Amino acid sequence: xxxxxxxxxxxxxxxxxxxxxxxxxxxxxxxxxxxxxxxxxxxxxxxxxxxxxxxxxxxxxxxxxxxxxxxxxxxxxxxxxxxxxxxxxxxxxxxxxxxxxxxxxxxxxxxxxxxxxxxxxxxxxxxxxxxxxxxxxxxxxxxxxxxxxxxxxxxxxxxxxxxxxxxxxxxxxxxxxxxxxxxxxxxxxxxxxxxxxxxxxxxxxxxxxxxxxxxxxxxxxxxxxxxxxxxxxxxxxxxxxxxxxxxxxxxxxxxxxxxxxxxxxxxxxxxxxxxxxxxxxxxxxxxxxxxxxxxxxxxxxxxxxxxxxxxxxxxxxxxxxxxxxxxxxxxxxxxxxxxxxxxxxxxxxxxxxxxxxxxxxxxxxxxxxxxxxxxxxxxxxxxxxxxxxxxxxxxxxxxxxxxxxxxxxxxxxxxxxxx
Length: 419
Ligand SMILES: *Cc1c(COP(=O)(O)O)cnc(C)c1O
Prior knowledge:
The protein is an alpha/beta fold. The chain has 2 domains: 16-257, 3-Layer(aba) Sandwich (Aspartate Aminotransferase, domain 2), CATH 3.40.640; 259-416, Aspartate Aminotransferase, domain 1. 33% of the residues lie in helices and 12% in strands. The chain contains 12 helices and 15 strands. Helix 4 (95-99) links the parallel strand 2 and strand 3 (103-107). The longest helix is centred in the middle third of the chain and has 18 residues, at 258-275. It starts with 15 loop residues before the first helix and ends with a helix. Pyridoxal-5'-phosphate (PLP) binds at residues 63-65, 89-90, 92-93, 142, 168, 170-171, 192, 194, 205.
């Protein structure tokens, strides 16, 4: 029997245990130590161009969500503020805005990259200033599934209004725009090393900072904001967000294989593009042009609404009892079968068909402006993310997905089409 094929499972380079062993041998089993420093150095050389002298700084943290949270704090976000966030994303882009008592203002996507629409962004900035008399405190574009956002246009708007950009490159580690690594264009850049991302530390993240002073500030906040006294003196609220030295050891091992991971995801994307090219009703989401150098963390296809999929009459017939994404420990059950905004029945039928064939596939992120928890947040929409949510489906792309797996997945996709 074929093993189940997952979207993106971690693959170890073989060097992780050496770094972990060092952590134990030197008794650095703590949220600081040589692996944390070494991992930060690895990340720093990865994100900075080789010839740069005063490049970006990097702080290793316990999650990407923590990185978003600390970036917002560093931009001075507090109660009553507004922060502009790409709507088409995973909830970790916007939840930390809420933690701070601020309001996310959601911006819809443009059709090329599926990321933040720069025109809508500008409209929203102007409208918010008109309505509240205050500028939004930050702008968060998201590299959805690794695809670079139109960062030149976003920076142009941000700079014109003097608003800092926090790039959520959690899914876009190693993606580049015009040759430059994502996360290095805005004031801050968020990375995630969760178990299913481009590289993993089991759980972890990092914040790319503009300089040493901002790095120190972030590090201070991440370690409970301690003052220099012989006892614990606190004059600000801090967080326990540093990365463990054991986990950082995994990260150092993973960094020895990042080149292979990037090459692999791009190769898998190439295979889907080729093998699905002439399947009517199915399209693969591609980079608009060569400036957008995606890591293709996940590959995504869209299914035309009119394409009939085996079993689609019974789509949503029964309730699901688990949440998508393996990480969830406890999920709420007892809701209904339908919501007012859900993938088309043929997409759900495709998910069920692939699932039965041992293939994990899942709908694209449900836009935040369609999430009940954000029903009171202002949103500037053009319909793009909502319509993509109805037709989009993520396909396995991780380092354990073989060429044979991709051919098998494509054959099952074709088999799912009703003739
Ligand atoms: C995964 C992810 C994050 C958060 O990262 P964690 O390490 O899981 O906390 C943030 N934003 C986006 C878009 C993500 O996909």
